[in-house]
Amino acid sequence: MNDDSSHNRIVILGSTGSIGTSCLEVVEGLGNNMEVLGLTAHTSWRDLAAQSRKYRPRWSVLSDERIRSRVETSEFGSDTELCFGTDAIEDVAAADEADVVICGIVGVAGLRGVSAAISAGKRVGIANKEPLVMAGGLMMKAAAEHGATIIPVDSEHSAIYQAMKSGHPSEVKRVVLTASGGPFRGWKREQLTDVTPEMALAHPTWDMGAKITIDSATLMNKALEIIEAKWLFGLSVDQIEVVIHPQSIIHSFVEFVDGSVIAQLSPPDMKLPIQYALTYPRRVSGVARKLDWSTGMNLQFDPPDLENFPGLQLGFEVAERGGTCGAVLNAANEGAVARFLAGDLRFSEIPRACRAILDAHNFDPDPTMTELLRQDGWAREEIQQWRS
Ligand SMILES: NC(=O)C1=CN([C@@H]2O[C@H](COP(=O)(O)OP(=O)(O)OC[C@H]3O[C@@H](n4cnc5c(N)ncnc54)[C@H](OP(=O)(O)O)[C@@H]3O)[C@@H](O)[C@H]2O)C=CC1
Ligand SMILES: CC(=O)[C@@H](O)[C@H](O)COP(=O)(O)O
Ligand SMILES: [Mn+2]
């Protein structure tokens, strides 16, 4: 971080998305303490232009080179240099002037930006879980080598990060990830066959981008989060549990060896974990919603339904096996979700297709990044052709 910890220059990867726009609200709430240095989007150039005029970053990046000829550069304001391409995302994420990088790109498309920020030794707030699922072991190793500080932004992992402060890492018995259960909590396998994208996009508690919202509905989001937790906190699979908590008020628990369970509570609003990553180790007043204790509240907990939501089981298995499994599961799931949203795959086929591709892949227990990228590409081709 900047020596003057009251003023920090921030880069937001994926600034036009759900995490990105929440992050800009947080930055605005923090006032003069934060300066927006860089923003990135893929194709939403008009949104990025509006953000650029408002926050006046030094750089704005559009990663999709194909839209270059359509973009009206004058819309970005005179203070901002507009750049194109994924190389430019890496340059901004690693810029000497950047103190903190918030990673809010969706999918493995965010890998190069996250990796660049880590290699440059930045403070890196990671919401973008898919690169961790794909290559978490290599990323944590790189962070240690380059002196980067990874602060989880995913709500469950932020909660665990905060709760871990109550004891020494060696005193942690297990972590419990909470899951809302999604829009189909309590549904049976037969009922899930004819679910439409519109139904699956109606998350009961969180307002998020389309891909993660579908993942929440299949419980694949929790599967990815098991793998994410393993890498972020150096846990074994038998130290990770999942509990269904429909209210999304408790964002996860840490149980210590003495039996004490420490939880983090707040309304379902990503502005809190984003702000925590920006101001850590300090806590400051901010724009995130607060709990209202003046009205009654019931907090419910149920065991997860692995039979009707088989995607969750994949998370435990993949975290256990490691190697190339995370890359393959993640890539198959990204492709399956895209096909489901395009009306080309049934909802109930998402976990089935992921299972089939995972089982068919050529397992490597200790892959390099090159091998992980190769397997990611292979799984993306497989999922395009998959038929039940
Ligand atoms: N939303 C949430 O509350 C939470 C999200 N997360 C994680 O955070 C990440 C972002 O999620 P969310 O904000 O919901 O996603 P959104 O779909 O809302 O936003 C995605 C962002 O990534 C950009 N983007 C999309 N494709 C590419 C690409 N190929 N290359 C570069 N940039 C790209 C988009 O730009 P453009 O607008 O131009 O398409 C946009 O800025 C995901 O990994 C998700 O799992 C984790 C916890 C909570
Ligand atoms: C906000 C956040 O972190 C999401 O990952 C959220 O947890 C999704 O809700 P589910 O618990 O339904 O997966
Ligand atoms: Mn989450």
Radius of gyration: 20 Å
Order of helices and strands: EHEHEEHEHEHEHEHHHHEEEHHHHH
Q: Compute the average pLDDT.
A: 97
Domain module tally:
2
CATH topology tier name of the largest domain: Rna Polymerase Sigma Factor, Chain: A
The total count of strands amounts to 11
Q: What percent of residues adopt helix (DSSP H or I)? A: 40-55%
Return the structural class: alpha/beta
Task: For the record, give the distance between the C-alpha atoms at the N and C termini, rounded to a whole number.
Answer: 50 Å
Oligomer designation? single chain
Bound ligands? NADPH dihydro-nicotinamide-adenine-dinucleotide phosphate, 1-deoxy-D-xylulose-5-phosphate, manganese (II) ion
Q: Which parts are unreliable, with pLDDT below 50 for 5 consecutive residues or more?
A: none
Q: Any idea of the CATH class of the largest domain?
A: Mainly Alpha
Level-2 CATH architecture of the largest domain: Orthogonal Bundle
Textual characterization of the structure:
The protein has 388 residues and is of the alpha/beta class. The chain folds into two domains: 8-152, NAD(P)-binding Rossmann-like Domain (Rossmann fold, 3-Layer(aba) Sandwich), CATH 3.40.50; 159-265 and 295-385, RNA polymerase sigma factor, region 2, helix turn helix motif (Rna Polymerase Sigma Factor, Chain: A). It is built from 15 helices and eleven strands. It has a seven-stranded parallel β-sheet with strand order 4-3-2-1-5-6-7, sandwiched between helices. The chain has a four-stranded mixed β-sheet with strand order 9-8-10-11, covered by helices on one side. The protein starts with 7 loop residues before the first strand and ends with a helix. The structure holds NADPH dihydro-nicotinamide-adenine-dinucleotide phosphate (NDP), 1-deoxy-D-xylulose-5-phosphate and manganese (II) ion (MN). The site of NADPH dihydro-nicotinamide-adenine-dinucleotide phosphate (NDP) has 27 residues, from helix 1 and helix 5. Residues 14-20, 41-44, 63, 104-106, 109, 127-130, 154-155, 206, 208-209, 212, 270 line the site of NADPH dihydro-nicotinamide-adenine-dinucleotide phosphate. Mn(2+) binds at residues 154, 156, 225. Belongs to the DXR family.
